[in-house]
Amino acid sequence: MNLTVLIHCPDQKGIISAVTNFLHEKGGNVVYLDQHVDKQAAIFFMRLEAEFENGYTQQLFDSEFKDTLAPRFNMKWQSHLKKIKPRMALFVSKYNHCLYDLLSRYHSGELEAEIPFILSNHKDLGFIAEQFGIPFYHVPFSKENREEAEAEQLKLLKEHKVDFIVLARYMQIVSSTVIAQYPNKIINIHHSFLPAFAGAKPYHAAFKRGVKIIGATSHYVTEELDAGPIIEQDVVPVSHTHTIKDFIAKGRDLEKIVLARAVKLHLKHKTMVYNNKTVIFT
Amino acid sequence: MNLTVLIHCPDQKGIISAVTNFLHEKGGNVVYLDQHVDKQAAIFFMRLEAEFENGYTQQLFDSEFKDTLAPRFNMKWQSHLKKIKPRMALFVSKYNHCLYDLLSRYHSGELEAEIPFILSNHKDLGFIAEQFGIPFYHVPFSKENREEAEAEQLKLLKEHKVDFIVLARYMQIVSSTVIAQYPNKIINIHHSFLPAFAGAKPYHAAFKRGVKIIGATSHYVTEELDAGPIIEQDVVPVSHTHTIKDFIAKGRDLEKIVLARAVKLHLKHKTMVYNNKTVIFT
Amino acid sequence: MNLTVLIHCPDQKGIISAVTNFLHEKGGNVVYLDQHVDKQAAIFFMRLEAEFENGYTQQLFDSEFKDTLAPRFNMKWQSHLKKIKPRMALFVSKYNHCLYDLLSRYHSGELEAEIPFILSNHKDLGFIAEQFGIPFYHVPFSKENREEAEAEQLKLLKEHKVDFIVLARYMQIVSSTVIAQYPNKIINIHHSFLPAFAGAKPYHAAFKRGVKIIGATSHYVTEELDAGPIIEQDVVPVSHTHTIKDFIAKGRDLEKIVLARAVKLHLKHKTMVYNNKTVIFT
Amino acid sequence: MNLTVLIHCPDQKGIISAVTNFLHEKGGNVVYLDQHVDKQAAIFFMRLEAEFENGYTQQLFDSEFKDTLAPRFNMKWQSHLKKIKPRMALFVSKYNHCLYDLLSRYHSGELEAEIPFILSNHKDLGFIAEQFGIPFYHVPFSKENREEAEAEQLKLLKEHKVDFIVLARYMQIVSSTVIAQYPNKIINIHHSFLPAFAGAKPYHAAFKRGVKIIGATSHYVTEELDAGPIIEQDVVPVSHTHTIKDFIAKGRDLEKIVLARAVKLHLKHKTMVYNNKTVIFT
């Protein structure tokens, strides 16, 4: 088996040798190791991939690691089997560029994921789900039906054993209840270079300010709007010749590329979150 | 002579043909024309370069244009002789990277400018002025001597017939009086991707927010801090592996390049300002 | 009507004022003018957009311009009505990312084009044509059926009144006959930063050379392989951590974005070709 | 002491745990570890930084590592004390931008290096060496005095105990003898995006080809011109509006930034070379 292990703990001496030794003793070969220390915060981070050809299992690893190294170093950790594809729900509204982009990547085998369903507060993009043969749920959302809609979302997420959610230009605030159940597991794409132009209509705001570069930001969703841990950002130059419509068109290309990159990093367990920031192993 | 003309006025029909005709009739050959219309604001902008080989002068152009086309189209306009080098004062504090960069460009003939003096609120960089043989004035600035210092600055600017001021990491707020006398003629470099992280310590703020890209912004100075018309911006990727010190080191390269680009655009009369934004002709 | 006019001719005095005057006299309002002079080659280029509200037609313009200014300045020129959507044929093989990208843009109304058909030397992508309801022609191509295949391509292009062809990762050399009939009207995407790594397997070659940046290039197809006039290029950083497979995955995103930008420039008549180079009006 | 260790060897199981154990046993704390496997070539690379507070020395490490792990895994390796500043010679000709840039960084403490001397085949830049108080040697180079000049270069390099050489736009081919004595220790800056436009006058060639992006490449010098292992590359967009002179001006900024980045990577022992490629630890 190929096992990916993510660890973070207070920084201290001897962690790397202890962990690599542990894996070595269990018959594992470390094929990848990346580590990071935030010296200011005194936190240690590590991502390893180990290969075992001796029948050692994830279950064994989990139980043995839990009883030995994890408590010794006060670690928070996860293990993931490479062959397991995470289950990703897509939430959309009316814009189709991110949806088309993710689905065509999925369809080409570029994304190591399952997509159990697409959910939308509007019916408009149902036909794309149909084009790609993926179940589509229309869950309208308004002040009046808020609790009902939320309940339906949670029911679908549970039923389909969803591991994480991608907001592919879902123009609706996700409720606290959903966020609480999917901590650092909801990926949003915001159409600005955060923290500039958080909130609604960022392209309009960028145009008004007369910036020479616009951006897009993919981040994990937290309670505070557009303020969650940033996974990926990219930018594109603009000039006085571009109208707001041009900003939006250029932005679409940014949004889809930046979101896709963030989704791939998440799928490969290359992101770790702490202090509202991310460590991205590449 | 080679004359550069900058024009802006309410958008209306026939401006381009009227102006190009005017120049044609005076014996000028238009060797460059770039124009822009901000449709939302209904403002027309144009930059022309015309060559005259018939003895026609800037003085003649100015007086004839002023009496005919300018009032007809309600134009604001300026003309500049290509052979005249603008006079640029450099204001610095303690950081030397922008100063070294501008001076080495100046020294190589890359900047078509005169540098009558370097002014600083600290003595630290005086030796660089000396290295390059440029007069250096030490004008300390504090709450107590504010008015005096301001008066001295203005006196130096007048005496040396300064056309515009470059704040090459001048870590001191320029007073309203100076700004009022040099409207859209003071160029600052701010070490963030504005409007993100305006104000003090932008690299620290960027680090805390966990951004994946940092930037620098060159802008004209207005009363409101870090909120003036943006001339040029650029960015560089960062990651969790970078400390604040790394941000600062990467930022230095951005700052000097972005500031130098803005200075060159200003020197070539390629910038126009309106509604707190710029039109940049390239 | 809104008329776009592209002109190039030997550089000489008075062209801009002559053309803008001409349009003014016919009742047109020049809403956009961009011009360029290649001083080395002594060639003048201009792109104008003019609006007429007086019933003046493209036919009138064409015949009057042809008899007056065009011969006087020895101009090569074209005029295009803004409301006419060019007809674009898509040629593909087995890779689907550029095809999906163009079709989703088309479907969202982002491309002002008609797509009469998709042609491929393989059957693999027929289902995508079907997904989007666009006719699909399978025209296999081999040494043996070369002439036949060529004839069929030309027949389809004629029948469907195709204005230009987009090779959206068409892994087959287009024949000289087709190129001759569509000069500067066949757009290719090459998966390298040309002129580096022309020809087959550019990602493999880039990997072997150990470059730190990879690119994609969109260009007009000429007789010489990968040597036609470049329309658009972009790049993305890579490192020693990336395998050839990673290069290919990163490249896919570049290819689709760069090709789409080139297609949009062509659709808006913003490209002019001379000396195997392009002038791109933006 | 803080010790940086660079290792490469045939890929095999257990290397990481063996090395981290070794350091742990000697009382070292691994504060940084980055590792890479080129699977195609089956080579393992690692860079570690370890801190020792127990009086353990580089000499001890070198002798103990040499007798134990190094032979067991068939390793090639080096160790470097963080506090030792490498000695860097600068070779220049007539262009001053890279020289000014490196010297101003050096002067600000940004480069952890000693600069024992500047050498040039021309006298032009001697005054800059003087500005910064660094010895300057004028060693003319021609077909006639080739062997003499080479001998003088080697003599100076030896006398000043130079660790590596930076060709800061040294417009002269370095002789095989010098290259042989400084393998992967001569850093050049080439003013194109290699492998495009190797050899002389790359900006002219790029202009002729009509590229939309130009670049600069820093690489280690090998026998074959402009074909050595690439350390760093960067690019900047250009358009039809730019002349060759503009390419050169834009290129200057690229060259100095790219060269400085490469020099810093080398100074921090973050580069490893194999198969004419580099592994760059960041």
Oligomer: homotetramer
Helical content of chain A, roughly? 25-40%
> How much β-strand is present in the residues of chain A?
25-35%
Taken in chain order, the helices and strands of chain A follow as: EHEEHHEEHEHEHEHEHEEHEE
Choose one word for the global shape of chain A: globular
Most residues in contact: chain pair:
A-B, 33 and 33 residues
Tell me the distance between the termini of chain A.
Answer: 21 Å
Strand and helix map with partners:
The structure is a homotetramer of 282-residue chains.
Chain A: E1 2-10, H1 15-25, E2 28-38, E3 43-52, H2 58-67, H3 69-73, E4 76-81, E5 88-92, H4 97-107, E6 118-120, H5 126-131, E7 136-138, H6 146-159, E8 164-167, H7 176-181, E9 186-190, H8 202-209, E10 213-220, E11 230-237, H9 244-267, E12 271-274, E13 277-280
Parallel strand pairs in A: 5-6, 5-8, 6-7, 8-9
Antiparallel strand pairs in A: 1-3, 1-4, 2-3, 9-10, 10-11, 12-13
GO biological process, one term (chains A, B, C, D): 'de novo' IMP biosynthetic process
Pathway (chains A, B, C, D): Purine metabolism; IMP biosynthesis via de novo pathway; formate from 10-formyl-5,6,7,8-tetrahydrofolate: step 1/1
InterPro entries (chains A, B, C, D): ACT-like_dom_sf, ACT_dom, Formyl-FH4-Hydrolase_C, Formyl_transf_N, Formyl_transf_N_sf, PurU, PurU_ACT
